[in-house]
Specification:
The complex is a heterodimer of chains A (348) and B (266). With 348 residues, chain A is of the alpha+beta class. Chain A has 9 helices and 20 strands. In chain A, α5 links the parallel β7 and β8 (183-188). Classes of the chains: A alpha+beta (348), B mainly alpha (266). Chain A binds chain B through residues 44, 47-49, 68-70, 72, 74-76, 78, 82, 84-86, 95-96, 99-100, 127-130, 143-144, 146-147, and chain B through 161, 163-164, 166-174, 177, 181-182, 185-186, 261, 263-266.
């Protein structure tokens, strides 16, 4: 669908170096990287707001590298929405349709459709200054979708929303994009957005892409130390959760965890490596989770030892060098992992 | 408590000192109006040559403002959106007319547009006279007043996020269309205020206009010659009348522009 070939560009302190990737029709492609890694610049080049110093961009096999933005048919959603403040929600959504020169009846119909789809039908006469973050975000999405873009570029689309809303909107727009079959390139620094929304993820560091993989693989098999560190949340598992009594049981391949977060169905669970205790024997304690495994790998992190334990699924645990030595932890040793239910973070 | 008292004390002192400044501006104006009286205004309004000069000033200032806007607004947009080496130099050049004595500006213009000037001489041969004509007046006014609209427009354009234009272009608009439909409405207030300042500056110009075009006489030149030939008695009423007209127009325009919607404050 769209192919980026060895793209380079330096601009205003940022630089992109030798970026190459291809996004397939209907795919949700996430570029994940810390702030300042050049993600927005990359999107703006794809949209045609800047031109690259080197490299090519191909859209459906024809080159668009130097085409002006209006000829590309690429939609753009900024983190802070960039709604036209001098126009109502209706006129914002209709902007692209008017530029196309559609008849006003057609425009009216299309605006109504999109507003309905995004649940902002009641806000059409409002000005952007009177919208909440979520409403503004829906409006900017409706506006971007109005021209039926071949590709939609999302620049931290969830970044300005508060966490509660974020999860709700994330699920909703993910579904919307899948239903419409929209091809998406989405840049973010949020690991949660990336893993939940992305079909594939590219990890970006200082203007370079350091790894491109299916979203699960990026988190489970980081290829470099940077990716491993940036991806951060070590113990992420995909599975199912259900309520049993007061507790929530999470089942993934090979493991069952007890959690307290009340989210059910297909979810992810994560546990921070420093929240896990290693014991040599099964222990009766107030912590709900106690699972048996074998030490698989020891990684010296300077003062801290990261112990990788295979319990059916692979867990990362942080302990001090001193306790590691005292407990004589070595490869292949049988240990128990203990952690509280409230430290099992479920999210969807 | 103490701090609070102290802070308010500062405000009181600033207020008192500031009041002196306001009085300093308002007293001469009121004094002139009182001095002239209603009969003076009537007499000045009946003076045909004075009225002609005032009208000429106002019309020439409108032309000067329109031309300054025509050439100045695109320049302002360019300066607001582009980074390039020598930008600071260009911005300083734009401010030159504000800082040079206007009589010097007039002489400089004369070397270009005068009958023997670089452009004035060949144009004179073609039968187009700039010195001592409406064109000369407009040029002099434009020279001294254009910086106001350029600077005000530039500030306005800078306040509009360029990403708004990006979005509009992404939706299929050309850059021109994006600027006209999004950027210009958002900084209309800056453009209006800039235009008012430009017009006001143009109408009040004396030095540069007098050098390049003594005739036809604009209001300021007329007042000056009246003052030289007949003294205060005839010149003050005309001056007061011009001032009154300017204040009325100024107030009307400011009221209109103040009502202009500021979207970012919604």
């Amino acid at each position: 669908m769209i192919k980026i070939e060895s793209l380079s560009r330096s601009w205003d302190g940022f630089s992109l170096e030798d970026i190459s990737f291809e996004v397939n029709e209907g795919e949700h492609f996430v570029v994940l990287g810390p702030t300042g890694s050049g993600k927005t610049l990359l999107l703006e080049i794809i949209a045609g707001f800047h031109f690259p110093d080197k490299g090519r961009i191909l859209l459906r096999n024809s080159e668009i590298t130097l085409l002006p933005p209006k000829k590309r048919g690429i939609g753009f959603v900024y983190q802070d929405y960039m709604l036209f403040p001098n126009m109502t929600v209706r006129d914002n959504i209709a902007y692209g349709l008017r530029v196309m020169g559609l008849k006003s009846k057609m425009i009216e119909q299309k605006v109504g459709e999109l507003a309905g789809l995004l649940g902002i039908g009641g806000l059409l006469e409002r000005f952007p200054g009177k919208l909440s973050g979520g409403e503004a975000q829906r409006t900017s999405l409706a506006r971007a979708l109005s021209i039926d873009p071949d590709i939609l570029l999302l620049d931290e689309p969830m970044g300005a929303l508060d966490p509660n809303l974020r999860s709700e909107i994330r699920t909703e727009i993910s579904r919307l994009f899948k239903n419409r079959g929209t091809t998406i390139i989405h840049v973010t620094h949020s690991r949660e957005d990336a893993i939940i929304m992305g079909d594939r993820i590219a990890i970006m560091k200082n203007g370079r892409i350091v790894q491109i993989d299916d979203s699960d693989r990026v988190f489970r098999h980081p290829r470099t130390k940077f990716v491993a560190e940036f991806v951060g949340v070590k113990n992420i598992f995909k599975g199912n959760s259900k309520k049993v009594g007061d507790l929530v049981y999470f089942k993934s391949q090979g493991i069952t965890l007890v959690a307290t977060t009340h989210i059910f169905g297909e979810v992810y669970a994560s546990i921070r490596p420093e929240d896990i205790i290693i014991s040599l024997q099964r222990m009766e304690s107030s912590a709900r989770n106690c699972i048996k495994g074998k030490v698989n790998e020891l990684i010296d992190m300077g003062g801290i030892m990261r112990v990788m334990v295979d319990c059916g699924a692979l867990f990362a645990v942080n302990i001090t060098q001193a306790s590691c030595a005292e407990m004589e932890i070595s490869l292949g040793k049988e240990v128990y992992l203990i952690f509280k239910a409230q430290n099992v973070n479920l999210f969807s | 408590m103490n701090m609070r008292k102290k802070a308010e004390g500062t405000m009181i002192i600033a207020g008192i000192i500031g009041a002196i400044m306001v009085i300093f501006i308002i007293i001469p104006i009121i004094s002139m109006f009182i001095d002239v009286g209603i009969s003076g205004f009537i007499r000045a309004a009946g003076d045909r040559s004075a009225m002609k000069a005032i009208l000429l000033s106002m019309i020439a200032a409108v032309y000067a403002t329109a031309l300054s806007a025509l050439f100045g607004i695109p320049l302002a947009y360019f300066l607001a959106r582009k980074k390039f080496p020598g930008k600071k130099l260009i911005e300083s050049i734009i401010d030159i007319p504000i800082v040079v004595p206007h009589i010097i500006a007039g002489i400089a213009l004369l070397t270009v547009f005068g009958r023997h000037g670089v452009l004035g001489a060949p144009l004179d041969e073609l039968g187009i006279r700039i010195a001592d004509s409406m064109i000369g007046i407009v040029i002099a006014m434009m020279f001294v007043s254009a910086p106001f609209i350029i600077n005000s427009a530039k500030e306005g354009f800078e306040s509009v996020d360029p990403r708004l234009e990006n979005v509009a272009m992404g939706l299929g608009a050309s850059r021109t269309r994006a600027v006209i439909t999004i950027t210009v409405p958002l900084c209309m207030k800056n453009l209006l205020v800039g235009a008012i300042m430009t017009w006001a500056r143009a109408i009040s110009e004396f030095g540069a206009v007098m050098i390049i075009a003594y005739y036809p006489m604009v209001a300021t030149t007329h007042i000056y010659t009246e003052y030289l030939h007949s003294g205060l008695e005839t010149s003050v009423p005309i001056a007061a009348l011009l001032l009154l007209i300017c204040i009325i127009i100024f107030v009307i325009l400011r009221t209109i522009s103040a009502r202009w919607k500021r979207y970012d404050q919604d």
